[in-house]
Design a protein that fits this description.
The complex is a heterodimer. Chain A is built from 19 helices and 21 strands. By secondary structure, chain A is an alpha/beta fold. In chain A, β16 and β17 form a beta hairpin. In chain A, α1 runs antiparallel to α2. Chain B has a 7-stranded mixed beta sheet with strand order 1-2-3-4-5-7-9, with helices on both faces. In chain B, β2 and β3 form a beta hairpin. The chains are: A alpha/beta, B alpha/beta.
Chain lengths: 548, 304
């Protein structure tokens, strides 16, 4: 090959085309369509920044408004397909191929478009996988990103919602790709430099903040007594005996209940300083009472949460903050932390089958994975020991020489036997399998694989799958906590009694828990207002969560 | 007079069930239920729709003592069908109000309702009319009928009409009082008119603080059963009466209110017009500070 330096030359051409529409690095909004047409080439791999929280929404609309005769056949590589405009890009024929991670609110439309052939799917990833592929075989030619402010040199301040930005910029800019940022405002001096200006080629002043979804706010008023019971079981039956100090929580109401029980029920059990001291976790508002009661030493965040900015800034002893005082989040680092430095993941799911595979897919929706499969999996590359990891490993494999035995990450699925609208949590066959057949996917979208899950918690009790010695035992352990679902009613009562004797299944009474004690009075906060008050007024909930 | 004993443990009115509210409201152990669940007076309509019934049809009625005084009580259970009025539910309240008139005993209605039950709409609408008539007849006979609002379902639809006929209305911040619910307005008039998911908007339009400020409620209390109890004791000490002069005064007040605020777009503008200092801060104010700020509120001019 004689023509070395072709990528640099191509970048040079893009820069030249872009500069025709820019003053320095700044592209005025009216010139944005012509600018994008100039810097994006048909067939480009494009990363449009957006995940389950922040969105480069203005650049997304601008891209969707291009003429497909000018720009077409793009290959979109992005964390989130969340905004309607993300799919308009495909509907209009501007993009053709898609590799992504999370689709949340667009899950039904994305499935329809895949079925209708409007989207050519590469793969559905976890965040960490997609980030990894940015550096191997899915490196973007163009990245369209979002920040809070920029200076004229392109130095960016990404604020509390830094999230994916450093990863996207690193992969794009250092591999001859072009980086364009939308910012709320252009300032003389940014509060802190999150992204150095020499990695950023152009900025657009949007005049308004990028969109952020308050995905991690759970209203304590909606927590049910059954959820409180599952939370009590988890705390007393798993957190306490394993001594889980380093962990990640999912976003459901069950884990919100756990967070709100720490300063009350957890305190009563004497667990303070013994569990829940270090988290890989977004700043959940429901963590406020536990933080205020001194339970938590440290939290690293994937992203921020709307309304929590001032609280986080005032609690820099717990959270990671920059010299400007505000939160520094980083999704790639936090996912890695959740994978390798946490001893437990606990989260809710929608369906669990008889082997213990679980999935949040329901028919005709592709919601993607986000980060849960990374959190909810046993990292085979882990080498550092910890008490919960060693104990779980010993339960799974008591006969191996301890010095040669792998530990196990605790992966806990928690939920009520009948979920939203009385849909059973336990099923014979996952809907994910039907979806995979319908869309001819190689893999069914399974959130947590059976061989990773260690415990299942429902209001009926805890099933410890680590201690099951056969496929049969495992199936009965799952049936044994499946309550009055069809799966639960088809149990072998005798075998389940044996499992209970061995402690594989633990009922509330086995743990000394009276279900009648599961009362909303146990919650350290029973409303969003209580959370605001507990924060000393620092938490400012968004309008849609305020019932005052 | 020495205060009669009551259950003085802290209890959130918003969180409590109908029976918990009654227990916390009246003098300890004084409540005696009429037509209790053991009699299984269930709705004759719900089975047709394959819907579950409840043995008390979602309302508890009976007698008890409040600070020593004999009173009649009705409490709606907002967690059963949103506390909605059906045939039996309505008949129990009508009967209680007629008894109040016959016995000359005051009545406390603990509202927690979305309005009339759609599955038995005709019977429910008739019940609302009968109840309103019974309230007025009781009041004409000198009986106080006090409404207490602070439950999860709020006080909507027919429930709000009944509340409008009460001699006094006590409300908490969590309480909501309005004829049409947020979803109904959004469905009929569009999200631009009213975004039902914007809870701050819902509360500043229908919530307890706003209703108190515009004279839709007479007393504002903390979300505590004890606070409701104390306010109810006070409310029963005043007998506003109910004659033509009172109704005419109320009509004049409502006309004046419409003139004064008819054009405003948002509750905050009303608060500003009322001359409230820092009106945007009203939702965040704790009870004491709120009551001080509420000095200029629209009062009901004793019209109730």
């Amino acid at each position: 090959m004689s023509d070395w330096g072709m990528q640099k030359a191509a970048l040079g051409e893009r820069l030249a085309a872009g500069r025709q529409h820019a003053r320095g690095k700044v592209v005025p909004i009216p010139d944005l369509p012509a600018f994008l047409k100039g810097v994006i080439r048909s067939g480009d791999r494009v990363c449009l920044e957006g995940d389950n929280q922040k969105q480069a929404d203005m650049l997304a609309s601008a891209l969707a408004n291009l003429d497909p005769r000018d720009v077409h056949d793009l290959h979109m590589v992005q964390s989130g397909v969340v905004l309607p405009s993300h799919l308009d890009i495909f509907e209009k024929g501007i993009a053709r191929r898609l590799d992504f991670s999370y689709s949340g609110p667009q899950s039904a439309r994305i499935a329809r478009m895949l079925f209708g052939g409007k989207i050519e799917l590469g793969a559905v990833h976890t965040y960490l996988e997609l980030f990894a592929r940015y550096f191997i075989d899915l490196t973007p030619n163009v990245a369209l990103i979002a920040a809070v402010s920029a200076d004229k040199d392109g130095n960016l301040y990404t604020g509390p919602n830094t999230e994916d930005t450093p990863t996207v910029v690193e992969a794009t800019s250092y591999k001859n790709g072009l980086v364009v940022a939308q910012v709320t405002e252009i300032v003389d001096k940014v509060p802190r430099v999150d992204i150095p200006g020499d990695l950023v080629h152009f900025v657009v002043e949007a005049g308004r903040p990028f969109y952020v979804e308050p995905l991690f706010t759970r209203d304590p008023a909606a927590i049910t007594e059954t959820q409180i019971l599952t939370a009590m079981l988890a705390i007393k039956g798993i957190y306490a005996p394993y001594g889980v100090r380093r962990l990640n929580h999912g976003i459901g109401f069950n884990t919100a209940a756990i967070e709100l029980l720490l300063p009350t029920y957890g305190e009563k059990l004497g667990l303070k300083d013994k569990v829940c001291t270090h988290f890989a976790l977004n700043p959940h508002p429901t963590m406020i009472p536990a933080i205020e009661a001194g339970w938590v030493e440290q939290i690293h965040c994937f992203g921020s949460e709307v309304g929590m900015e001032d609280y986080v800034a005032a609690r820099s002893d717990v959270f990671f903050t920059g010299p400007d005082g505000s939160l520094r989040s980083n999704r790639a680092f936090c996912q890695t932390a959740g994978l390798y430095a946490c001893d437990m993941f606990i989260g809710s799911t929608l369906q669990i089958d008889l082997e213990g595979h679980s999935s949040t897919v329901t028919t005709s929706r592709i919601a993607g994975f986000g980060g849960a499969p990374n959190m909810g999996s046993d990292p085979r590359g882990r080498r550092h020991p910890s008490e919960p990891w060693l104990k779980a490993g010993a339960e799974a494999d008591p006969d191996t020489n301890a010095a040669l035995r792998r530990g196990r990450k605790l992966v806990v699925q928690i939920g009520e036997t009948f979920g939203d609208r009385n849909t059973p949590l336990f099923v014979e066959r996952l809907d994910a399998l039907d979806l995979a057949e319908e869309l001819k996917l190689d893999l069914a979208p399974v959130m947590v694989y059976s061989d990773d899950v260690t415990h299942i918690v429902t209001e009926e009790g805890i099933a410890n799958l680590l201690m099951c010695r056969s496929k049969d035992e495992r199936e009965q352990a799952i049936r044994g906590v499946a309550g009055y679902t069809d799966i639960g009613r088809a149990r072998d009562a005798k075998l389940i009694e044996q499992l209970r004797q061995r402690g594989v299944i633990q009922r509330p009474e086995d743990l000394g828990i009276d279900p009648l004690d599961a009362d909303r009075n146990l919650l350290a906060a029973r409303s969003i207002k209580d959370l605001m008050l507990a924060s000393g007024g620092l938490y400012r909930p968004p309008s849609r969560f305020r019932n005052w | 007079m020495t205060a009669a004993t009551c259950n003085d443990v802290s209890l959130s009115w918003y969180e409590a069930s109908a029976r918990q509210r009654i227990d916390a409201l009246v003098d300890a152990g004084s409540f005696c239920e009429f037509i209790g669940p053991e009699l299984r007076e269930i709705s004759p309509h719900l089975a047709i729709f394959d819907l579950p019934e409840q043995f008390d049809d979602g309302i508890v009625v009976g007698r008890g003592r409040l600070d020593g005084k004999a009173v009649l009580l009705a409490a709606q259970e907002g967690r059963f069908m949103g506390g909605a009025f059906g045939e039996v539910h309505g008949a129990k309240l009508t009967g209680l109000l007629r008894a109040a008139r016959a016995l000359s005993q005051d009545v406390l209605i603990l509202f927690d309702t979305g309005g009339v039950r759609l599955q038995e709409a005709n019977a429910g609408e008739l019940a609302i009319a009968e109840i309103m008539r019974a309230v007025i007849e009781a009041r004409r006979a000198g009986v106080n009928v006090v409404g207490l609002i602070g439950g999860r379902a709020g006080c909507y639809g027919g429930g709000s009409l009944i509340a409008g006929t009460c001699s006094k209305v006590i409300i908490s911040e969590q309480g909501r009082l309005s004829v049409s619910g947020p979803e109904v307005i959004e469905t009929n008039r569009g999200i631009e008119e009213f975004d039902s998911r914007d809870r701050a908007l819902v509360w500043r339009t229908m919530g307890g603080k706003h209703r108190f400020l515009i004279g839709g409620a007479d007393a504002f209390v903390d979300d505590e059963a004890l606070a409701f109890r104390q306010s109810a004791i006070v409310a029963l000490k005043i007998s506003p009466g109910c004659d033509v002069a009172v109704l005419a005064a109320e009509q004049a007040r409502l006309e004046r209110r419409l003139q004064r605020f008819g054009e405003v777009e948002d509750a905050v503008e009303i608060w500003q017009t009322l001359g409230i200092d820092q009106p945007t801060e009203i939702p965040a104010r704790p009870t004491g500070a709120f009551l001080r700020a509420a000095n200029n509120r629209e009062s009901a001019d004793d019209a109730r």
